[in-house]
Amino acid sequence: MIQTPYLLFLGDAPDPLAAKVAQGIRDWRPDFALGQLRLDGCKADMALPDMTLPEAYAAGARTLVIGVANRGGVISDAWKAVLVDALKAGFDIASGLHNLLRDEPELVAAAKAEGRTLFDVRVPSVDYPIADGTKRTGKRCLAVGTDCSVGKMYTALAMEAAMTTRGMNATFRATGQTGILITGGGVPLDAVIADFMAGAVEWLTPSNDADHWDLIEGQGSLFHASYSGVTMALIHGGAPDALILCHEPTREHMRGLPGYQLPTLEALRDLALTLAHVVNPGCQVVGISVNTKALSDAEATAYLAEVEARLGLPAVDPFRHGADRLVDALAAI
Amino acid sequence: MIQTPYLLFLGDAPDPLAAKVAQGIRDWRPDFALGQLRLDGCKADMALPDMTLPEAYAAGARTLVIGVANRGGVISDAWKAVLVDALKAGFDIASGLHNLLRDEPELVAAAKAEGRTLFDVRVPSVDYPIADGTKRTGKRCLAVGTDCSVGKMYTALAMEAAMTTRGMNATFRATGQTGILITGGGVPLDAVIADFMAGAVEWLTPSNDADHWDLIEGQGSLFHASYSGVTMALIHGGAPDALILCHEPTREHMRGLPGYQLPTLEALRDLALTLAHVVNPGCQVVGISVNTKALSDAEATAYLAEVEARLGLPAVDPFRHGADRLVDALAAI
């Protein structure tokens, strides 16, 4: 696990969107977001105190999280100078960048000299087991999508927040880089070796209290030719008791695959349930989460009502309307 | 690609079963099996000429293939001495062992000094692309199983042999270690990073002549909780035109998963077709391959007749009866 709280490194972000990792931490784990560190020209602002490394350390921060995408796929000299200073100031560093911290000799040397840790969350740091399919205690909910990038992480985080507010026993389980940085732990499932994918998901969602819910971050889509194997491993390793279907209604084709149409929500429901029943015969689809960002309020309301009537399940956009109706459905099973 | 023909290293095999890789090469690629090299106490015999390293090299062999499992998970000193001699005699070495040749400093040093190659086929040697789902020319057939280890590799190899005998244009595509050693190339799919699984299968089965069939070796099972993600990637990366269902009728539970029942052939047919249609709407199930080793001749005949009537598809045991009826079915689509 990555030590919290964090100092968020925003670097020289060219725009706010580049800092979406920092924004995710700010939104979903505000207690972890102690302050921000910005370089000249930074165009992102998390509305957090700007802190120097010593100030943040004194305030309790123990990890500098790279909350921003880098430009051109390299870690610049300007960044490196700050990262070395952070190690010297007593911070670990956590990063989801494609170029790994561990591939930078200066950072490796400084971390070693200072006894600090470099967390490259894009690659696994655990030898996961092969899945054994053993029934675990506690309950699990998995978000599955008609496509990639339709809001599965957001849905699971919003449900966790709503459940925590109600005093329910719930944990978001990250399976991607952003989710891992937000929560401080998880499995970078797309970087796991094929034979160990389902085992990694079992490892991530162990036996727990009978009333505990794991809210498992989804990845890919059963209908996405590039990544469907990862989704399959989430279903068979996660052995969910409940599924949430996630959808973006204006997408014209599967992400990155022109010529591939999105499936219907009915097709997703039927296929995901068939697969889930292999490992958990009691699994149910409990609700639908729709990303209505591209729709007006009126369009969104009409679309959700239509889906709800058609599938007979609560259909909400958790960003517009909150996740409470999804949590109600989960609490009812 | 691994250079052929081979000298098959049988080591100190404690019994014939330990040499199943060598047996597979002997059975399916007899032209590659120039000779065998056995140590004292070897209990396996491929009925090939026993050759010294210089004799085999003079006869044209260019790769020493480790055709036997090792004992205790270590490469013994006795083996190492032979392997170093082989490198000095001009051979590459190919191995599917869990302990990698590249992790043995003496072998690495000798290979480097001699300019030879160590092929550890258990781990990928290619940076596979992410699948792009593009339609390729030529045709593809994939074997899918109700469980792991039900005869998928055997079925695909037997179909390739029957097709080659008929003058059809067909290539077995290996996706596991044994298949790779038998044919000299392929993808060790269970060792590929999750994001690249389907792309590796696309890479393995590129566009080809319109009348060409790839016979893709299956892995895992859609119904096996540990490995189903690998099977999914085979279906979506392979985009098969034809599926062969493979089954072993006496198995009491899924391999390695007590408490998990095997699915029916009907359930496998329906699920595999649903998934295949995502990438290839024309995909058909053309036949059923049953491993009847545990049944008498009369039992096997009765079982196959029952399955054939029930599913309305040719059902054969290619080991007992040959793969011709499966090939007839393939040729008809």
Structural class of chain A: alpha/beta
What is the average per-residue confidence, as pLDDT of chain A, rounded to a whole number? 97
H/E element order of chain A: EHEHEHEHEEHEHHEHEHEHEHH
Q: Give the oligomeric state.
A: homodimer
Q: Which parts of chain A are unreliable, with pLDDT below 50 for 5 consecutive residues or more?
A: none
Shape of chain A: globular
Task: Report the radius of gyration of chain A as a whole number of Å.
Answer: 20 Å
Count of beta strands of chain A: 11
Number of helical regions of chain A: 12
Please bin the fraction of helical residues of chain A: 25-40%
**Major sheet strand order of chain A:** 7-8-6-9-10-11
Largest sheet of chain A at a glance?
6 strands, parallel
Greatest interface by residues involved: A-B, 39 and 39 residues
Please report the distance between the alpha carbons of the first and last residues of chain A. Answer: 32 Å
- Which strand-content bin applies to the residues of chain A? 15-25%
Explain what you see:
- The structure is a homodimer of 333-residue chains.
- With 333 residues, chain A is an alpha/beta fold.
- The first copy, chain A, has helices spanning 20-28, 53-58, 77-88, 105-114, 152-165, 177-183, 197-204, 228-238, 265-279, 297-311, 318-321, 324-331, and strands at residues 6-11, 33-38, 63-66, 92-95, 118-120, 139-145, 170-173, 213-216, 242-247, 284-290, 315-316.
- In chain A, strands 7-8-6-9-10-11 form a six-stranded parallel β-sheet, sandwiched between helices.
- Chain A is globular.
- The mean pLDDT of chain A is 97.
